[in-house]
Amino acid sequence: MFSLNLAHPGLQRREENAPGRFYTTHDCDACGTCFLYAMKNMMYSYDSTYYFVYRQPANDREERDLRRAMNLCPMHCIRDDGDPS
Ligand code: SF4
User: Can you give the residue range of the structural domain that contains 58?
Assistant: First the structure.
């Protein structure tokens, strides 16, 4: 049975993420892949050591792009909490 270890800091949502359902966790290694596919929603940190969701998708196109970035993220650290608010 799968169990989620919430104590692992890598699974925690970064504070910089815009409020909303999509976010990155501390597991990001700053590879930049997500930025190539979801440039309107992803941004790099001031020191370029990680990326975060700086704007939630505003339309279906942006959500599709962000989901593509999620699927390609090598660290699996772009998450969707399923809450549309
Ligand atoms: S694709 Fe994933 S690991 Fe790479 S920069 Fe984006 S969030 Fe970080």
Answer: 16-80
